[in-house]
Amino acid sequence: MPAVSFQGVTKIYAGARGTLRALDSVTFDIQRGEFFGLLGPNGAGKTTLISILAGLARASEGRVSVMGHDVVADYAQARHALGVVPQELVFDPFFSVREALRIQNGYFGVKHNDDWIDELLAGLGLADKAGANMRQLSGGMKRRVLVAQALVHRPPVIVLDEPTAGVDVELRQTLWQFIAKLNKQGHTVLLTTHYLEEAEALCGRIAMLKQGRVVALDRTDNLLAATAGSMLRFKTDDTLPEDLAARSRVTGRIAQIAARDATEVEQVLARLRTAQVRVEDLEIGRADLEDVFLAIMHAAPVRPEVVA
Amino acid sequence: MTGNSHLAGAGTLFRKEILRFWKVSFQTVGAPVLTAVLYLLIFGHVLEDHVKVYDRIAYTSFLVPGLVMMSVLQNAFANTSSSLIQSKITGNLVFLLVSPLSPLAWYLAYVGAAMVRGLVVGAGVLAVTVWFGPPGDVQPGWILAFALLGAALMGSLGLIAGLWAEKFDQMAAFQNFIVMPMTFLAGVFYSVHSLPPFWLAASHLNPFFYMVDGFRRGFFGVSDVSPWLSLAVVATALAMVATVTLRLLRSGYKLRH
């Protein structure tokens, strides 16, 4: 039995201008103990999918289950098995950190859990903030409390919806060490992130969403191997010829062009020479997940947003 | 699933909702008590010699139970409605939405805490105002029955308003255009028998009138209509509002999209 199962999940939003298919027959499983990444550009449907998983939204079609429990028919068991760290930095201003954790704990019917609460506070660097009111905490600290709230009832499946958006490096490291430890202990982790290097470093398997559809689903190393093996990076003040510009990623003066092998690298360099592009600081590196992501997003067909 | 697990977590939400208003009790309990005392002093002073509602009962004494009940009703409504709208707008309702709490557990916890707030404020208003206008033939059974049913009804109505409203001004509209007029036209400050025939008939369509009238019966042993009729009307209204509230919660109305 998989930890999480999405079967034909479709979500249609009806609006004044027609209907929007936010998710289109999304089907995949996440096995127990996996560290799974869900990637996609803004509006791809990542948060909608996670909202359906957590019971915050309802699928128009399809089924979702957590540890074998259907999220609609058997919602109580499904939610017991799930800990969700929401994307928005939300908090209840009436309570202290410890009160917030005890309350969350109580919603799940868990009692006498202060040892685990202390462990969570220590593990997330919150031990000295236990008595502080939520309003007094910095954004990073609030984010840590959100993680602790998601874990307080000891769920076997943890969902992190862009948990490191806008947080400092120190928290990112504390958080990942903590989550990696939980994953080693057997917890299943589902992560959505915009930081592709995080997904590359942490996730064993990745699904990529585009316009509500799964456009890639594979082991992270397979995804890295399947697309361009090398990446040319250089600086230039000149305009790239059209054929190269179409396949390159340009950020200010820095251009990056994917190449499958040494022959293709040579061809790109020759093309730059004939087009008289002056190149500085040229380096050839291994393609990373960001390159894979962009290649897949470019290759996947675009479909109209609005379905009448 | 056992009956017990249906209600698991309800106790925590109930305590949290009580803690929420208790932490700001100056505003949630102190302020309404002061308001009620001001009503009593001003209306009591101005109208004492001009209005005679029942024989043998001074106007100030008549006013006390009306003000107590008005405070119970308004504060029970305020507790559920303000808690829900604040949680919705700040986004922290997500903590509850991801929890396994059943719709029945939501209902009992929210409405239970609203009843506690209504009764605490009502007791506060009574404790301060009763010295100005002592009651006559006290019948505690009626007092308790109408206070509990009225608080539950208004707590439920507050839950509906909290689910429905998406902005604070929608909530204010619900409060100012529905709750406030129905409370003021319920005979808090007067006996409906002093009204012209049309407004007398209109008052009898207002369930708030039965709550206030039945509650007042417990203080003086007299009322505009039979307390049994009032009890039946209030209990029926509560059953109807509770059914609607539970349906909305079960359907995930404006909660789960």
Quick summary of this structure?
The complex is a heterodimer of chains A (308) and B (257). Chain A is α/β, with parallel strands linked by helices and 308 residues long.
Structure commentary:
The complex is a heterodimer of chains A (308) and B (257). By secondary structure, chain A is an alpha/beta fold. Among the domains of chain A are: 1-81 and 185-227 and 288-308, Rossmann fold; 228-286, Alpha-Beta Plaits, CATH 3.30.70. Helix content of chain A is 35%, strand content 29%. Chain A has eleven helices and 15 strands. Chain A has helices at 46-54, 75-80, 97-107, 114-123, 139-151, 169-184, 196-202, 220-226, 242-246, 262-274, 289-299, and strands at residues 4-15, 18-30, 35-39, 61-66, 69-70, 82-85, 157-161, 188-192, 205-210, 213-219, 230-235, 248-251, 254-259, 280-286, 306-307. A six-stranded mixed β-sheet of chain A has the order 6-7-8-3-9-10, sandwiched between helices. In chain A, helix 3 (97-107) runs parallel beside helix 5. The longest helix of chain A has 16 residues, at 169-184. The two termini of chain A are 38 Å apart. The relative contact order of chain A is 0.14. The mean pLDDT of chain A is 88. Chain B has 257 residues and is an all-alpha fold. Chain B has one domain. In chain B, 74% of the residues lie in helices and 0% in strands. Chain B has helices at residues 3-6, 10-22, 25-47, 59-90, 94-97, 103-129, 140-164, 168-184, 197-203, 207-220, 227-251. Classes of the chains: A alpha/beta (308), B mainly alpha (257). At the A-B interface, helix 2 and helix 3 of A face helix 2 and helix 5 of B.
